[in-house]
Structures are given as structure tokens and as C-alpha cells.
User: Fold Threonine synthase from Streptomyces orinoci.
Amino acid sequence: MAAAHTVAPSAPSSVSLGPAVALSCRECGERVPLGPVFACASCFGPLETAYRFPDEDPQALRRRIEAGPASIWRYAPLLPVPADVADRPNLNPGFTKLVRAGNLARELGVTGGLFIKDDSGNPTHSFKDRVVAIAVEAARAFGFTTLSCSSTGNLAGAVGAAAARAGLRSCVFIPHDLEAGKVVMAAVYGGDLVGIEGSYDDVNRFCSELIGDPLGEGWGFVNVNLRPYYAEGSKTLAYEICEQLGWQLPDQIVVPIASGSQLTKIDKGLRELIALGLVEDRPYRIFGAQAEGCSPVSRAFKDGHDVVRPVRPDTIAKSLAIGNPADGPYVLDIARRTGGAVEDVTDPEITDAIRLLARTEGIFAETAGGVTVGVTRKLIAFGQLDPSLTTVVLNTGDGLKTLDAVAGGPTVVIRPSLEAFRAVEL
Ligand SMILES: *Cc1c(COP(=O)(O)O)cnc(C)c1O
Ligand SMILES: [Zn+2]
Assistant:
């Protein structure tokens, strides 16, 4: 693990990140001032953002949120960002569609209401725009001039685009063998893109070394030294889902797992809404979804283990291909505490599920969406997911970025004549 304290530029002495007041250690609770640090100096546990939230009547806060911009910034009072964040140059991600999936529900036998939270609608077509937008504000507050990351693909594009809009330099790191759609998107925004010969876990380790080195001076790595802020962006998925359900908790939610950050922060977001009185407190279950070719968390869940044994990924779901997921143990806690589960699907099942969602709801998901839909189908078959309850399934990326997964083409190719078409059997 890299040094807990990173080589930081001369940061302003007092940073202003809205309701965020400190960082606190997830393991031992120790508090440190807001800064570009990610690991506890005492126990090396992960640091997360701690808040003092507005002491406001829930009705009034709901109205204030509803009157806000149609982006994640409507929840600025609950995020580590300055109050005027929406006026600063950024991509305004979020407030994506919550689609009632009636056709898919019939196909899967879900009677309690099935919804797809479709995050392919974000500016760079994945959920990563949410987390990056928060990290950019932290980077600005701490005086970083270069935005960076280790990425399984989607994050690289999101960082490149956000940096371009914010007027920051970017240099991002990816495994060299990613899907063409993701490589092109990572490169097009004009920052530097470095392919690393190795897996995502190798890329991540390399970035941790770079942070401790003068080479990385002045660099904000959104998912490493800015991780405590970055991670908070995933809470907005929980906020939006509840607001879009009419300020109600879903009964069940199916979330993809790469590092596990998104799943843990969705849980944090739901608990915050309950604590603030914005939704009524009742039980909810969180389910995690992985690809069989990279299923260390699912394995540990099924084996009843608390620790996650790292694996070497081999799956078409490259956006989820993290063999050593940092938040894996917390995911296990949450799945067990809420009465959920963690399940995995094979590559052919992922492809089938992408086609199923496209055929039933007109949504073309990337492989991560194939993983969540495939796992949902499996959990229903196994009786672990209750079809009579309200269920939200996340689609976190766009199928146009993973075209190879579904290699499709014309049913038939003909000359432009009625005669030729008449001879075709469709
Ligand atoms: C990054 C990513 C996720 C989740 O990542 P976590 O590391 O678990 O937060 C999910 N879906 C897609 C498409 C992603 O790119
Ligand atoms: Zn600690």
C-alpha cells in the first residue's frame, strides 16, 4: 500500500467542501482534516467523508432538492462540494432515467415492480461521471493541476472529459487490452492516455507508487488519493432512485461490483436519507453482481468468508474486472446485514442478459448491465430475490462501448429490390 500521506501541492489551509467536515477511518473511527489522504495513519483503514448535514425540516429539504438542477447537484447539500458547484464548469452528470421495466418484469415473473436505473444516460455514458464530478471539486480545493486515475475503461473517459471541461490537464492509466470503444473515448478528450502491460490490479498498484513519487506531484488520482471524495458520488444513485420512486426506499436493489465502492456508497446514501427523515425507514436488501470470471466477492459470500481472496480476472465484463476489490469485505457486510446476496453469471449468461434487456425494454447495456440483469434472473430462479417486491436493477454503462460482447449483424443482406426481399424468409 502507498504512503497514507500523498505528495500534495501547497493546498489552501482551510478547504470548503460544503457539509463535509473531516475524513474518518472506517475501521477505527479516527478523524483527520479534509485533505488528499485515503488511508488511516493509525490502522491503514480506508478514510471516508464525514459530514455535518443541514438541520432542516425534511419537507423543506425535499422541496429544496426538487427545485434544484436536473443533475447530481440537486443533492449538493449532502455532498462534499461547495454550495455554488452547479455554476462551475462541469459535465452536470446524473438524474438519469429510472425506467419501469414492465416487459422485462413479465419475462422474469416480477410482480412487485421492476425498474432499470439507466446510467448509460450520463455524459460519457457510464456511472463514472458521478464519482468524477465530485473528485474534480476536491482536486480544485486541494490545488491539483493534473487529474489522473487507474481505470478499467469507463473511468478513463470520464476523467478525460471532466478535466477538459474543468480546464485541468489529465493523464490516465488503463490496461493495454481494453475494448476499442473505451480506448477511443479515453483518448478523444485530448489528455494523455497510458496503456499498461498488465491487469487493472497492476495498473492500480503502479498508480499507488506514482503517488508516492515526485513524478506524481500535483496529481489528483480520482480513485486513489481523492478516493474518499470520489466514492461519495455513488450516493447520488441512492438519492435519485428514492426520489424517483416518490421519496421511498426500494425493497431490493441489484448493484454491480468492481472494487465494491459503488455498492457500499449506495448503502450509505440510503442510510443517510433515512437518518435525515427524507424517506420512511423500512428494510431494504442490497444484492451484488459479478461476472464468474472475476467473482472474488461472490465466492467469499457463498463460502461464508469475511475475507476476499484475490483472483486473476478473465471475463468479457472488463469494467468489473478487479481481481482484488478494495471494498470487498464491506460489500459482504452489507449483503449479509440487509438480507441480500452476492451472485455471479458466466460470460454467455452476460451476453444473453444484454440481449434480453435490449429485446424487452429497448435498453442497450454494456457488459456490466448484462451482469446485473443476468444475476437478477438467477437470484429470482434461486428464490433469493423476492419477485413480489419493488426491485431496482442498475445499468451502469452503454452497450456501444462493448460491441464485441454481442457481435450482431443484419439478418440477411439483399439487393435493393422487392423481388429479392420477397425471396427472403423472415
Ligand atoms: C466502475 C464501474 C462499476 C462499479 O465500480 P466499483 O469499483 O464497484 O464502484 C460498475 N459499472 C461500470 C460500468 C463501471 O465502469
Ligand atoms: Zn484507522
